[in-house]
Amino acid sequence: MLWTYIVLPVLVLLGLYFTIRSGVVQFRWIPEMLRTLTNKTPVDENGKPQSVSAFQAFTISAASRVGVGNIAGVGTAIAIGGPGAVFWMWTMAFLGGASSFVESTLGQLFKEKGDDGFRGGPAYYMWRGLKARWMGTLFAGILIACFPFAFSSLQANTISDTVTSSIEGDPMLISIIVGAVLAVLTALVVFGGVRRIASVTQSVVPAMALLYLLIGIVIVALNIDQLPSVFASIYSQAFGFNEVVGAAFGMILMTGVKRGMFSNEAGLGSAPNAGASAAVTHPVKQGLVQTLGVYFDTFLVCSITAFIILVSSPDLSNAAEGIGLTQSAIVDALGPWSNILLNVIIFLLAFSSILGNYYYGESNIEFISRSRKVLFGYRLLAVVAIFVGSIASAELIWNTADGIMGIMALVNLIAIGLLSGIVFRLIKDYSAQRKLGRDPVFTRSLLPDVEGITCWESEQSVTGVMPVAGGGSADNR
């Protein structure tokens, strides 16, 4: 009911509003997205990068987006809503691109300078932009419940399901063992014992994501003759005609929307936390980069999973939710050996997401309270959530995550809707500078009536200065 009567209408109406008011920025400026992705990072007075680059912020958010949502989530969407759910995932990714642009641009505008770079996100633009710290605190609390608890439980559940279906034995016993191992590994990282695990997974995960894409491309290539019928089924069943699983139109639509948002996180309020950390010369640049991240996640990675499943012509009438549908499709196409490889990929992607979700939560815990006791309690509950997620039913975990995600999205969408007028002004400024042949630079003097902007003091501080011979300085733009 929450999704049907509240979240979905707000999501669609705001997506359409942002699309129209921005002049379809999520489509019109695709070339600009690619250009800004490779911009040089502004430096400080010592010639060092001010923070992470636009590309690094893109990879951080992509690492969060690309995970079991792309593999298990798409499988669940097709199992529940049939091939037609994929169409609605695509549609909402396009509309969500506008929402992602708005939220990430706001995250940049209201970011703060920290000891090791920039930080920000929805809690900050609710506090600084709307002058509603209570709303920022509310959002931070919901994000903590959503990412390190509900979403991490989902990651753990997917790992458990994958291992359970690959090993003979008592499923509950295997799930308990997997849950205990995951909980211990997570505890070693979050309590500071083995930081190397986090650094190793961050290094390996991009390679695993590329390997999964390669597997998908191979499977699609082996079944290239099936692609026309796959596209036909996606479009013909999107509106409830000739549904394979007997799903009503509302179920198909809702499943596609929820699984799409879980995967690409457009409008959810998570990506701005990563986007705000980037050092760029104009807030719009990170809005464009994060929109590109939505497209990468949905139109590439999620589509590959959908094609892997649908080219195998599965029987969806009895399909299980979760990772099972994707797993069986890969094994049918490549043989039993691929199951082992998929287990490794799932584990690394999911465990990396667990760590990423934890750090999202920790940054928002710090927004609420700096108490070490509060932080310790949060870490303990985050570890417990991993174990519980491993042994709980997939249906329970998915429903819990959907409910919390819906509330989190609603709070964020209300905030970006109220602040969107500022973003449209930033678009005009960015466009005007580009027409003059400039690499756009923003300073807060361009929005003198907007309070709460703590960075963007001057053009020199934004673009960076670099020492040159003769004791002067040079614009590093």
CATH class label? Mainly Alpha
What's the number of structural domains?
1
DSSP summary, beta strand count = 4
Q: Spell out the CATH superfamily.
A: Amino acid/polyamine transporter I
Shape: globular
Spans of at least 5 consecutive residues whose pLDDT stays below 50 are 466-477
Query: What is the strand arrangement across the widest sheet?
Result: 1-2
Radius of gyration: 22 Å
- Structural class, please? mainly alpha
- Give the mean pLDDT: 82
Number of helices: 19
Kindly describe this structure.
The longest helix has 42 residues. The strands form two sheets. This protein has a two-stranded antiparallel ribbon. The chain has a two-stranded antiparallel ribbon with strand order 3-4. By secondary structure, it is mainly α. The radius of gyration is 22 Å and the shape is globular. Helices cover 72% and strands 3% of the residues. It is built from 19 helices and four strands. The protein has a single domain, classed as Up-down Bundle (Amino acid/polyamine transporter I), CATH 1.20.1740. The C terminus is likely disordered.
